[in-house]
Amino acid sequence: DVVMTQSPLSLPVTLGQPASISCRSSQSLGYSDGNTYLSWFQQRPGQSPRRLIYKVSNRDSGVPDRFSGSGSGTDFTLKISRVEAEDVGVYYCMQGTHWPRTFGQGTKLEIK
Amino acid sequence: EVQLVESGGGLVQPGGSLRLSCAAFGFVFRNSAMSWVRQAPGKGLEWVSTITAGGGSTYFADSVKGRFTISRDNSKNTLYLQMDRLRDDDTAVYFCARGQSGPDYWGQGTLVTVSS
User: Fold this and answer.
1) CB–CB of B106 and A37 under 8 A?
2) 112 residues of chain A, pLDDT tens digit each
């Protein structure tokens, strides 16, 4: 199975400051169709997960442009340019290239 | 508006069975692969199973293979998860989600508690 390793697992951030989460996969996530199926999800307290980013760097509709995704192969990053109070929650990366699908452990973002 | 509404959760004894349903609204259900993802209390997300749009292919996590069955009724816009031989560690909120490579819409989840 592809292991997804996130860091850090806890991320205290001051409002207005940037934040960055790393996600590394144990195998390359490039697929034969030329795409790389790496997604990022946000789960606010008490809510269902919400997809923010798909195929590494594509932002979903309605997601603020302060969120951005980058990376390739086995190394990926989610960046928040300026953290706002509504960004509090747990962030997960997920690979959709290999079976079984796998998630990272989650990174808990909190306001310092 | 896309909506996914799960139902069927509840309390069941170890070794028992439960069938979850997910009713889909607001999109062409028969054109979308569908997945189940679960979250144990206080834990992270765990992918459980996926079924392709036509139902011809299914995939399962090793932890549920041989015990869970995924199916769909495209005439009823409904996804199912039949869970047999349930274990304590199957206790979780089960989410229905659209897609297979990075689900874009998720339901609110239904809680399954396996306990004697």
Assistant:
1) no
2) 999 999 999 999 999 999 999 999 999 999 999 999 999 999 999 999 999 999 999 999 999 999 999 999 999 999 999 999 999 999 999 999 999 999 999 999 999 9
What is the DSSP pairing of strand A10-13 with strand A107-111? parallel
Q: State phi, psi for B31 to the nearest 5 degrees.
A: -95, 0
> Which of B1, B3, B45, B52 would you mutate first to test chain A, the one with the most A CBs within 10 A?
B45
* Residue B25 DSSP one-character state: E
Query: Would you state the structure tokens that stand for residue A76, as one six-digit string?
Result: 């990926």
How far, in Å, CA of A14 to CA of A60, rounded? 25
Burial (CB count within 10 angstroms: exposed 0-12, middle 13-18, buried 19+), residue A35:
middle
How distant is the Cα of B49 from the closest Cα of chain A, in angstroms? 9
- Residue bearing tokens 């199926």: A37
B34, B97 contact by CB (below 8 A): yes
H or E segment and range at residue B7: strand B3-7
pLDDT digits (tens, 9 = 90+) for B89-108: 999 999 999 999 999 999 99
- Could you give the angle at the alpha carbon of B105 between the alpha carbons of B100 and B108, nearest 5°? 115
What percentage of residues in chain B have a pLDDT greater than 70? 100
Angle (nearest 5°) at CA A44 between B93 and A62:
115
Considering only the beta carbons, identify the residue of B45, B50, B100 that sits closest to A103: B45
